[in-house]
Amino acid sequence: MLKTSHISSKLGAEESFVYLARSLELKKKGVDVISFGIGQPDFQPPPHVIEYAKQAMDSGFNGYGPSLGMPELREAVSDFINEEYGVDVKPEEVAITAGAKAAIFIGMLALLEPGDEVIIPDPAYPLYESVARFIGANIIFLRLHRGNNYKIRYEDIERLVTNRTRMIVLNYPENPVGSTMDQRDVEALVDLAYKKNFVIVSDEIYDHFVYEGKHFSTLQTPYWRDVVYYVNGFSKTFGMTGWRLGYVVANRDLISKLSVIANNMYSCPVTFAQIAAAKALQDGLEWFKPILNQYRKRRDLIHRHLGSIKGVHVFKPEGAFYIFPDFTEIIKAKGLKDERELADRLLEEKGVVVLPGTAFSKDAGKGHLRFAFAVREEDIEKGIERIKSWLES
Ligand SMILES: Cc1ncc(COP(=O)(O)O)c(C=O)c1O
């Protein structure tokens, strides 16, 4: 038997992929599965973007490219962000990565030392904690509360900052709770980071999935070049999860440091995908408007339906496409062990995929489930009906 390394055992796996595999297995057996599991948009990339990718392959973009990304895409990303947020990001301040996940991994690797303190929201996308543990950083959790609309708030962070704080991770709109951040909190936090000399890893991958108001980016603050490591990507807004394209914006010294790590890990992001993505950005996001309206309707629908289940407490998400209801009372009433048993039974007995809240937080996830509402309205209704009928059985 081959023995695996100690260092690899420090990494945690993202459980949504485990549930994805289980639901595919059930589908193969002919079960009519409704999946609120993995966070993947249910729309395809726009046809013109797929056409661009084919053309790029036909014109020979099938080889290696620069580790920090194709110049065409670095420039298109900076133009897109500048237009969107009225800022002046330069192409040299952009790196293209093999997904936002890789952007986060290489950024934390470039910035953190073992023993550094890193503040991570709780609950959160599990990658942040996994990579921080891998590096040996000291994790301080910033607990988010339903009573405060799960907001990441300046005052709560300030209380956790010490002289050893090296990094804070932000994610807004947030996975798994769907909260956004207020402009004043973002601004105050960037100021604090500047004064105290820590870095903000700001994962803004859901910036276009905002249902009320407009996203305020960390890049709109005056000191971003000193303190911000901004992460975004094509997976969510463009429905391009399988294309593995993400990007970073940061000061140019930091960007150039990323090159070596990226080079060791994956050489370069997929070249023809980058050429297509550059053109996609240049075409703008007019096509996305109806999608946002559709996702808002889904958000309203799933929130209403979950809220109508007696014993379920739920926050109405302001962004992203996740909802994080509290089923604690139901778990008790049904005599279940925990949210994991509930998620497993719903999958096996009703073909409904949901993720246990503890996939996102050991404590704050207890009794909770995460639903991704990247599914058609009729499937939302069908899925919740199945859950209700299981609860009544
Ligand atoms: C908050 C957050 N960041 C990053 C990612 C990863 O995105 P990518 O597919 O670009 O690696 C996800 C995917 O679910 C996410 O929810």
From TrEMBL:
Its cofactor is pyridoxal 5'-phosphate. Homodimer. SUPFAM superfamilies: PLP-dependent transferases (SSF53383). Its EC number is 2.6.1.-. The keyword Transferase applies. Residues 32-387 form the Aminotransferase class I/classII large domain. It comes from Infirmifilum uzonense. GO terms for molecular function: pyridoxal phosphate binding; transaminase activity. Belongs to the class-I pyridoxal-phosphate-dependent aminotransferase family. It comes from the Archaea. GO terms for biological process: amino acid metabolic process. Keywords: Aminotransferase, Pyridoxal phosphate, Transferase. This is Aminotransferase. The keyword Glycosyltransferase does not apply. PANTHER family: ASPARTATE AMINOTRANSFERASE.
